[in-house]
Design a protein that fits this description.
heterodimer; A: Aspartate Aminotransferase, domain 1; seven-stranded mixed sheet; three-stranded antiparallel sheet; B: alpha/beta; Aspartate Aminotransferase, domain 1; Aspartate Aminotransferase, domain 2; 2 domains; 38% helix
Chain lengths: 503, 426
């Protein structure tokens, strides 16, 4: 389909507020004339497209997409569960959506109450003592957590420059550490998929600021020695950070505080079902134990007998990490989700674990299960026996069966990894169908591998060339014909011969 | 409420297939940590009806006003078509398009968004979004320091104070220093335009100064409707243009989710944080889109990534793309003119009533005033009584006022008449 920039010039659908046309004559015209010439824009190279064409353009574009609303989406580590429709309506209630963030305190009591209660919910769920709802995503919550650790040691005048992560860690963990100038030390996993405790003990020196663990880890396995790890870390004066990406396995069963963690971020777009929107917005609340609560960003939500308020008291806060108070619209959805579950919250995790173990049991004979243990809410298979690039080929072929592929080639320690997270919102029927499709593809790979390598066949495009995309970058619309101002302009400065992915 | 489709019978079959008697058996690895109080002290589950009523009551505890306030959140009209398209499950319920063939819709929308940002700002390349304007700015500063390995950050006066707070937080984390002069250790010079007080400036002089010192020039546009009528950052020498896209089709939403954008000159391509969509072809030569230059990103490069950003705000980027497509060149210019004209009309009315005008440069849709004889607080509280949030009360008794196309001529007239009464009754 064409780009929005390729439509012929038409009548723009939206000229706002016709009643204000008075502005364009008389006294107001003079105002614009006052604007100095060197400030006035000469060309605005945007298209004018009619409203009906805009609607058709984006409706048709959307049809080339796949979401949870259309089928099974077992993308491991992403918790693609059903997003309740009522939460969309709730987030759009006028009183929430049209509220200016700098309104007077008396005008924002509903929002403050919601935020205060959501923090309480998170405290109960995680066992932490205080929360900040400000981080805009999980990785920003992580960044905030590492900043807090840095401020904490600075205050204590301890020079700790390193962070321990297991080799199964999400890429964000080392990337976040680097943003705060920490060095990461990677500990390998043992034969049961846990962080190797002996290697850990050797590496745990007095310059270790933080241990960052995901629990259950990215192999979908509970860290069996987490209590021992926490204990060793604490005795070393080291803080324990929980990457809460996999919280969907723990609700009402165990709390990260019970495992000895001092900090945790929650991904609200995973565990708490706010829709992921093709890549966000997410929200990433950060919870901490009491000894770190003074470092949380400002403002904090507080209450007295009658009212809720924002508290800007200085304490030892690391400062703000985002404009205003976080992705409020996502907080509303998460709050609604938790409220709807209430005391039944544990059922979410029980069923997430049940579904994962069931699906795993259907597939472990046809694929390799690198760590033969019961899994948590997700599991990782290896398709190594089916040849090189088999995970990629399986992923692409799954599309033809109407399923979104699992996460592939992650965690990095499993060759030809297929990381499968079914979530609790899938029926047994769906899981059976998915397992049947995977088995069929495994068979196809043995009998007619060439065919599988050409997949997918039923999407709007066949397999796309990522190498060409990087070698000859085309990252924006360039009009060779069409709008003024941009004619034939090339993106200068990009070396087209270089494939820097090879570096 | 219950979003779990597995029946009791299914559950029995599933447990049998797994080879256990109960779900508890699956939790054996967790035994030492199992939490006793399984209901977590939460309240009882709510039905959809109960939930809706509860949330309505909460939302009604907020009081909406007629807003004459901006300061980073701008109350613009969002055409109905934007929300209708966003609510489509195809856009709403997909993940980041790691599997390109599955989500060509999101990827094409990214590509169009990147194009719109480039066209608006005059930059060569843009990414597919950042969390918001404040973090886009912080990341632009990190980008600068990783490009030229310097650690000083010079910030021109007039940056939104919240943005400055966020920048300070990021700088503290990354061992960078906010400095008072531009010299050979300055990584970048940061300037907001229009600035926090609405002032517009041709920043070429500052760009030249930055470049002479070997620093990058970073501009921040928090009210991007201004770009429809004023010269874009690319015109006055910006190397990086970041900003907040909330004005383009995103409700004010009590501060989020919003839309950070980040555009750069081509030489900085490999330093950009976040997702980028690129056009390519499929195996039979058809046009398509993929996430590209992923070797910059955390899931590939880990501790050597350009940033830790993962989830961005893709849906908001799609909202703004649809908004820009709907408004078009003509509609955006009209919005900008209405914002500009409304603010200037109100400023003139206030001047006539003895307000001090504190903008010493041309301004866009925000301006700074001080009410006569220390009455600023009184003025604002009388407006509030009439359901008008009349501006942001700043230090020195100054008021920062904002107009958008949502403030009609009639609104501006009643604003002025309330003030007239306040001053007369004194």
């Amino acid at each position: 389909m064409k780009l929005i920039f390729e439509y012929e010039e038409s009548i723009s659908g939206h000229v706002p507020d016709a009643s204000n046309d008075d502005f364009s004559n008389g006294e107001v015209q003079d105002f614009l004339a006052d604007l100095p010439r060197d400030l006035i824009r000469k060309e605005l190279p945007l298209p004018n497209v009619s409203e009906v064409d805009v609607i058709r353009h984006y409706s048709n574009m959307s049809r080339k997409n796949f979401g949870v609303d259309f089928g099974f989406y077992p993308l491991g580590s992403c918790t693609m569960k059903y997003n309740p429709k009522i939460n969309e309506d709730i987030a759009r209630l006028e009183g929430f959506m049209q509220l200016h963030p700098l309104s007077h305190q008396s005008c924002i009591q509903g929002s403050l109450q919601m935020m205060w209660k959501l923090e309480e919910y998170f405290k109960k769920i995680t066992g932490m003592d205080a929360f900040s709802l400000q981080p805009a995503a999980g990785s920003q919550g992580e960044l905030l957590g590492v900043m807090i650790a840095k401020a904490y040691y600075k205050e204590k005048k301890e020079k700790r420059t390193k962070i321990i992560i297991p080799d199964s860690a999400h890429g964000t963990n080392p990337a976040t550490a680097a943003m705060c100038k920490f060095e990461t030390i990677t500990v390998k996993s043992d034969s049961r998929g846990n962080m190797d405790i002996n290697e850990f003990k050797e590496l745990l020196k007095d310059d270790i600021a933080l241990v960052m663990l995901t629990n259950p880890n990215t192999l979908g396995l509970f860290e069996e020695k987490v209590l021992e790890i926490s204990d060793l870390a604490h005795r070393n004066g080291t803080l324990m950070y929980c990457d809460g990406a996999n919280m969907n396995a723990l609700l009402g069963i165990t709390r990260p505080s019970d495992q000895g963690f001092d900090l945790i971020h929650l991904n609200l777009h995973k565990t708490f079902s706010t829709p992921h929107g093709g890549g966000g917005p997410g929200a990433g609340a950060l919870g901490v134990k009491t000894h770190l609560s003074d470092y949380l960003p400002l403002p904090r939500v507080v209450r007295d007998d009658k009212n809720f308020a924002f508290d800007y008291g200085a304490r030892k806060s690391v400062g703000m990490i985002r404009y205003c108070y976080g992705n409020f619209g996502m907080l509303v959805r998460a709050y609604a989700y938790i409220s709807s579950w209430g005391t039944d919250l544990r059922r979410i995790s029980e069923h997430a674990i049940l579904n994962a173990n069931y699906l795993c049991s259907l597939l472990k004979e046809d694929f390799e299960l690198p760590y033969n243990r019961r899994c948590a809410h997700e599991f990782v298979l290896s398709s190594r026996k089916l040849g090189q690039k088999s995970a990629l080929n399986i992923a692409k072929r799954l599309m033809d069966f109407g399923f979104h592929p699992p996460t592939i080639y992650f965690p990095l320690i499993v060759p030809e990894a297929l990381m499968i997270e079914p979530t609790e919102t899938e029926s047994k029927e769906t899981l059976d169908e998915f397992a049947a499709a995977l088995r069929k593809i495994a068979n196809e790979l043995k009998e007619n591998p060439g065919f599988v390598k050409g997949a997918p066949y039923t999407r709007s495009v066949q397999r796309l060339d990522e190498v060409i995309a990087a070698r000859r970058p085309n990252l924006r619309w360039n009009a060779n014909t069409g709008l003024d101002g941009e004619k034939g302009k090339k993106i200068a400065g990009i070396d087209e011969r270089e494939d820097w992915r090879q570096k | 409420m219950n979003y779990i489709p597995v029946t009791e019978n299914d559950k029995k079959d599933m447990l049998k297939q797994i080879g256990v008697k109960s779900v508890d058996e699956l939790l054996a690895d967790l035994k030492p940590q199992i939490h006793e109080n399984t209901n977590l002290g939460l309240s009882k589950p709510m039905s959809e009806l109960e939930l809706l009523e509860h949330m309505k009551r909460l939302s009604e505890k907020n009081n909406l006003m007629k807003y004459f306030i901006g300061a980073g959140s701008y109350n613009h009209y969002v055409p109905a078509a934007v929300n209708h398209l966003l609510m489509r499950g195809e856009f709403l319920t997909g993940y980041t398009p790691y599997q390109a063939e599955m989500n060509q819709g999101t990827l094409q929308a990214m590509y169009e968004f990147q194009s719109f940002i480039c066209l608006l700002t005059g930059m060569d390349i843009a990414n597919a979004s950042m969390y918001d304007g404040s973090t886009a700015l912080a990341e632009a500063v990190l980008l600068s320091t990783s490009y030229n390995r310097r650690n000083g950050v010079f910030v021109k006066n007039g940056l939104n104070p919240q943005y400055k707070e966020v920048l300070k937080t990021y700088c503290e984390g990354a061992d960078l220093e906010i400095v008072n002069e531009i010299n050979e250790n300055t990584a970048c010079v940061v300037a907001q335009n229009p600035d926090y007080y609405g002032n517009l400036e041709n920043l070429q002089y500052l760009s030249d100064k930055a470049h002479r010192a070997g620093a990058l020039f970073v501009t921040c546009v928090v009210e991007p409707t201004s770009l429809a009528i004023v010269q874009p950052p690319g015109y006055y020498g910006a190397d990086i243009a970041v900003g907040e896209g909330q004005s383009f089709g995103i409700p004010i939403n009590f501060g989020g989710p919003y839309l950070g954008f980040l555009g750069v000159k081509a030489f900085l391509l490999k330093k950009i944080p976040g997702r980028i969509a690129g056009m390519t072809t499929d195996s039979i030569g058809r046009k398509g889109f993929v996430l590209t230059f992923q070797a910059r990103e955390q899931h590939i490069r880990r501790e050597r990534a350009t940033s830790n950003i993962t989830t961005n705000v893709e849906l908001m980027a799609i909202a703004s793309t649809i908004y820009m497509a709907l408004m078009g060149r003509t509609g955006l210019k009209k919005v900008a003119k209405l914002c500009y004209s409304g603010a200037h009309l109100l400023q003139r009315k206030l001047a006539k009533m003895g307000f001090a005008l504190l903008n010493d440069k041309p301004f866009y849709n925000e301006f700074l005033v001080r009410a006569p004889s220390g009455s600023s607080e009184n003025v604002l509280s009388n407006l509030l009584k009439e359901g008008i949030l009349g501006g942001l009360h700043l230090d020195h008794d100054n008021i920062l006022i904002c107009c958008t196309e949502m403030n009609s001529l009639q609104d501006i007239a009643s604003y002025a008449s309330i003030i007239k009464e306040t001053i007369l009754s004194k």
